[in-house]
Amino acid sequence: MRRGTFRDETVDYAAVGATQAADLMHFPPERSTPAEDSWRIGSGQARFESAGDALLSWGALRGAGLELSDVRPASGPMYSGVSFDAEGRPLAPSRLEADQRFDSDGTPYVGPGTTVRVEGRVRGMSAAGELRVIFAIEEPRRVGFALGTVGGSVVSGEESFMLEWYDNDEVWFTVRAFDAPSAVLYRMFRGLIRRRRRELFTRYLRAISPLYATPA
């Protein structure tokens, strides 16, 4: 039985998975504003594994000051997610192989098809909405997932979070997103989308990286 607050709906945008497109910054989905940033957050297996666990237990969102509720894993095998390689080519459906995991307060870890309600504000701007995990990846040197808006947000679009442990032992955290305005205010003042996104990126980095320093 689903909770009354849970809505079994699809995402509210067409370009599902486009955060993995190699040309996102040059050719974003129609009417959307793209964003991308990468940060070196350390080196070594221990750093990669600890950051990966934090990421898959919603650490980026929680550390950004957002409150999660109604975290609902996909019911049954009907939603396995979609994944893309480094060139933006679609791969076979992605699914975490491990049994469902839970953090210390009983919240399920990120998984393909999971839907979550997020509440919060960033510098006075709403960050609330219902989101769905588009894909989730857990590989020996790459961990991440993407969230797409289902409804209730001031913007419509997708954001992806990816950790990679490179052959030179460096660990990098990359966040990519595209946002199209949903609320009237954001349609009138599109600069608000960029301000909102910059603040979210800063908060995500602060949550995941032990090397974070407040920009001058």
How would you describe this structure to a colleague?
The chain is α+β, with helices and mostly antiparallel strands. The chain has a single domain (38-208), classed as 2-Layer Sandwich (Alpha-D-Glucose-1,6-Bisphosphate, Chain A, domain 4). Helix content is 19%, strand content 32%. It is built from four helices and nine strands, in the order βααββββββββαα. The protein has helices at residues 45-56, 59-63, 184-188, 191-208, and strands at 33-43, 67-72, 115-119, 121-122, 125-126, 129-139, 142-151, 155-165, 170-181. A seven-stranded antiparallel sheet has the order 1-9-8-7-6-3-2. Strands 4-5 form a two-stranded antiparallel sheet. Residues 1-8 and 93-98 have low confidence and may be disordered.
Q: Rg to the nearest angstrom?
A: 16 Å
Q: How many strands, which pairing sense, and closed or not: the largest β-sheet?
A: 7 strands, antiparallel
Q: Roughly what fraction of the amino acids lie in strands? A: 25-35%
What would you say the CATH architecture is? Answer: 2-Layer Sandwich
Low-confidence stretches: 1-8, 93-98
Q: In terms of quaternary structure, what is this? A: single chain
Q: What is the overall silhouette? A: globular
- Would you tell me the structural class of the helices and strands? alpha+beta
Distance from first to last alpha carbon: 50 Å
Number of strands: 9
Q: State the order of secondary-structure elements, H for helix, E for strand.
A: EHHEEEEEEEEHH
